[in-house]
Design goal:
- This protein has one domain: Uracil-DNA glycosylase-like domain (Uracil-DNA Glycosylase, subunit E, 3-Layer(aba) Sandwich).
- 43% of the residues lie in helices and 16% in strands.
- The chain is of the alpha/beta class.
- A hairpin with a 2-residue loop joins strand 1 and strand 2.
- It is built from 6 helices and 8 strands, in the order E-E-H-H-E-E-H-E-E-H-E-H-E-H.
- Helix 1 runs antiparallel to helix 4.
């Protein structure tokens, strides 16, 4: 367990720093002046990956971080995990990533067609940088091609030397209504996840 010295003889663990950051994010209202529609405003609430079934979620403190674009709209009912996120958690557990840090670049859940603005991304960027430094991240796994390109653009400005990898977003496993296509999408995701696991295992052996 790593500790950071903050005052004379006083230190705080990585786990405590991340827990404090979680509590701060849940109270965030930086974007309140951007919400002109009161109906939408009520739905803009921070959502962070929960700790469930042995997977730490946002509270994970290993040097591997999985990063999505923003909270999926399917995670809306009582903050319970939807089908795709449950599959993601099952694979994290299967391949030994229970302690990985799970996060999104922007933290608020919105409607399906609401895109993040540059101002919203900027408002969340400070939180993301603290996640990187508090955990001392070595490897970032971008969830989806779009997020991979975004992180590739942002990382130089964040001045955090990390390895950037890419994994299909878990929501891709439920996009098809056709059972055959959905099964094929899941099989592709299983394969990609296994390949990622092998790559990270080889890195740790070096």
């Amino acid at each position: 367990m790593e500790h950071l010295l903050i005052d004379e003889g006083v230190s705080i663990s990585t786990e405590d720093r991340v827990a404090r950051l979680r509590d701060e994010i849940k109270k965030c209202d930086k974007c309140k002046n951007l919400r002109h529609d009161k109906h939408k405003s009520s739905k803009w609430k921070p959502w962070l990956f929960p700790e469930e079934d042995g997977v730490k979620g946002f509270l994970g403190c290993s040097d591997i971080m999985f990063v999505g674009e923003r909270p999926s709209t399917g995670k809306s009912k009582d903050d319970k995990l939807d089908e795709a996120t449950k599959l993601f958690y099952n694979l994290l557990k299967k391949y030994g990533f229970q302690e990985a840090h799970l996060t999104d670049l922007t933290k608020c859940r919105k409607e399906v067609k609401e895109e993040d603005t540059l101002q919203e991304i900027s408002n969340c960027l400070g939180y993301f940088k603290r996640e990187l430094t508090d955990i001392n991240t070595r490897t970032l796994v971008a969830l989806g091609q779009k997020q991979y390109m975004t992180l590739k653009f942002l990382l130089p400005a964040l001045e955090q030397p990390v390895e950037l990898l890419r994994l299909r977003h878990y929501s891709a496993t439920i996009r098809f209504k056709d059972k055959k296509k959905r099964r094929e999408a899941k099989e592709k995701y299983y394969h990609e996840f296994k390949e990622l696991s092998l790559k990270l295992r080889k890195r740790n052996l070096k």
